[in-house]
Design a protein that fits this description.
Layout lengths: L5 H7 L5 H7 L6 H12 L3 H23 L4 H13 L4 H16 L4 H4 E5 L4 H5 L4 E7 L11 E8 L2 E4 L5 H14 L9 H11 L8 H12 L2
Parallel strand pairs: 1-2
Antiparallel strand pairs: 2-3, 3-4
Helix pairs in contact: 3-9, 4-6, 4-9, 5-6
Length: 224
């Protein structure tokens, strides 16, 4: 992305590694600072705008997923199965499922974006090889038949964990999108449609959508 936040520009123009940025200017990665910079450059409230978009689009996305799940293999079916098994916090789980299913529906690999590790794993091990990702830190002492609980949600950029203690998947995606925008990091080729959808459809930032994303947007509009 070409636009850089004002307070980031002095350091971003030098193109340092993300890990170096975090070591030298850790406050740039504080959640409140990220939100403030987003308002400054876009005149939009980061979390408010993104959460409103998730609220709007989640039911439509889930409807699309259910209608066409046979076309997208086991990943989408598993997301919907887990959603159907939930008995509490249904609204939250629906939003999570809508976000996790987005890469699948756009025919990208969700495992490239959504990562998992155990809470006892060192940060460098959890982040190794990950250029851009959302990391779910799972408890590692659970009964055999139980599903592990998520202990933390974090953001990985350039093999470095740059933000932790994020509330949920939509919040993590909002912060991730903002950091990519701020640090002028190009979207990974294998996730470009997912991230473009978050930027141009959810946040309504940027020029015209690609044909692939425009097709999804039209489908969502028809389900209003």
């Amino acid at each position: 992305m070409q636009c850089k936040f004002c307070s980031f520009s002095a350091v971003v123009d030098k193109q340092p590694m993300v890990a170096e940025l975090k070591d030298r200017w850790p406050t740039l990665f504080f959640k409140d600072q990220i939100c403030e910079e987003f308002v400054r450059i876009t005149n939009k409230d980061l979390l408010g705008t993104f959460r409103a978009a998730v609220e709007k689009y989640a039911p439509q996305l889930l409807s699309l997923y259910r209608t066409r799940k046979t076309e997208f293999g086991k990943d989408l079916k598993e997301i919907l199965r887990k959603l159907d098994d939930e008995t509490a916090n249904i609204v939250r789980h629906r939003k999570e499922a809508a976000m996790k299913g987005l890469p699948v529906f756009l025919r990208e690999d969700p495992n490239l974006l959504f990562k998992q590790c155990l809470e006892t794993d060192p940060d460098d091990v959890a982040a190794k090889g990950v250029t851009v990702g959302i990391l779910y830190v799972l408890e590692d002492c659970v009964a055999e038949a139980s599903s592990p609980k998520i202990q933390n949600i974090a953001i990985i950029l350039e093999e470095s964990i740059v933000a932790k203690d994020l509330q949920d998947t939509p919040s993590a995606l909002a912060y991730l999108l903002c950091l990519l925008y701020a640090l002028n990091i190009p979207y990974p080729e294998d996730l470009k449609y997912t991230l473009e959808t978050l930027q141009k459809v959810f946040m309504e930032i940027g020029p015209k959508c690609s044909n692939h994303v425009r097709s999804l947007k039209k489908k969502l509009c028809l389900l209003k």
